[in-house]
């Protein structure tokens, strides 16, 4: 376990109003009191100092064990930025170019096909004119999908192949990615944006290029150097009591326990760079601080500042936002004014988002209603952790943004 997580400054010293920050707690406490959330933790940092840290409710409703500052959470898709950083660390070493076809490293993707029409039982496909390239994986423009989206025939084909909310039983990451390559793409790579298993494929690319399993690369190259001692693909016996239980939204709007068995306490067969990590507020705060500081924290540099700046600019063609370039998918927030970089959603037009924020702020969230963002213009990072599926059940992320930005008073 890392050092104690605590507030490190008077909020006024970093341009935040303490009374206004308390509005975060007073707003989200009723989510627990009326049963919408089991519990939550919020961390607001500015100029490298933790100005607000609050926890409320239970990490386990049955036992009444409270959410504490060292509670462990399934961060699901907040794993994606970590995998994207891993890939770009290898890019900085000259291991590949962003325009390289991924089939150079993952031969199963050499002859991809694109879905044209027909049913899942009799799909009609054609050869892809464009190969999947590394940047397509990083930007979710590869044509891959998620089986749980229930939007297209390709989603249905994923589910039939065992890709619903996990990978096919019995396959490791290499086997799962090869199986994925057998399925058709939703569109030509680079032509649209669609949230997908691309980051799982990217994780396999990291393995092949580095010659290390993904968990070892993460531990040796990212977590250990940054002091992220709580982040891994499973929880060890010594830390089991810190693990938050997972809940889903019942028909009555109240959080209901989702029995996950012992999945959090044993190494997964397939290491999911797209959604497999467990972490703590302190650890993810350190990851955000590394990004805010241009790839460096406490003398440890993972990326160059220009690489971080490049990753966190909009890479959608013509400066388009996700509303224009994306496909409608499971999401909590509007895509208007939001672009996508290499691993992050990026605010392209703050006015168009209809939410208090800054141009250039970047972010992502997880399936269990977790969220984070980094705002370079305001030198601000925010982490919100809870455990409720799905993430669009309540307007958590939009409300949190309102409540954080209204507290900035300098």
Question: What can you tell me about this protein's structure?
Answer:
The chain is an alpha+beta fold and 410 residues long. The chain has 2 domains: 11-82 and 213-405, DD-peptidase/beta-lactamase superfamily (Beta-lactamase, 3-Layer(aba) Sandwich), CATH 3.40.710; 96-210, no CATH class. The protein has helices at 18-33, 80-92, 134-139, 153-160, 173-180, 198-210, 214-226, 281-292, 305-311, 322-325, 350-353, 396-405, and strands at 39-46, 49-60, 65-66, 73-74, 113-118, 123-127, 247-249, 255-257, 278-279, 296-297, 300-301, 338-340, 345-347, 362-365, 371-375, 380-385, 388-389. The strands form 5 sheets. The chain has an 8-stranded antiparallel β-sheet with strand order 3-2-1-16-15-14-13-12. A 3-stranded mixed β-sheet has the order 8-7-17, with no helix packed on it. The radius of gyration is 20 Å and the shape is globular. The model has no long low-confidence stretch (mean pLDDT 96).
